[in-house]
Design goal:
By secondary structure, the chain is an alpha+beta fold. Helices cover 34% and strands 32% of the residues. Strand 2 and strand 3 form a beta hairpin. The longest helix has 14 residues, at 18-31.
């Protein structure tokens, strides 16, 4: 069995951008991502200054995440608006002890 995969997307934002980006991410997860097979959960974190936003999502497997990217994220109008903000993405895998 595959270990869950966590996707961490970090946005470094200019003043006022967080107020635009957070609702877009929330809408994207509520309307599109939550229904995708393999999606487990997501959280959004921000720093105190509002200049850094981190989106942390957990997927059942890398395969399910890659299918989501191909079939949803690359074609979604909401996703395209989110992608307009500069971001860095890391994929990390859980290590079970």
């Amino acid at each position: 069995m595959n270990n869950p995969m966590n996707v961490i997307v970090r946005f470094e934002l200019k003043e006022g951008e967080i107020e635009v980006l957070v609702p877009l991410i929330q809408e994207f997860f509520e309307k599109e991502v939550s229904a995708v097979p393999g999606f487990i959960s997501a959280k959004i974190h921000k720093n105190e200054e509002g200049s850094v936003l981190i989106n942390y999502a957990t997927w059942e497997s890398e395969e399910k995440f890659l299918k989501f990217v191909k079939e949803v994220a690359q074609v979604s109008e909401i996703s395209k608006k989110i992608q307009a903000f500069a971001s860095k993405t890391d994929r990390v895998f859980e290590i079970t002890l």
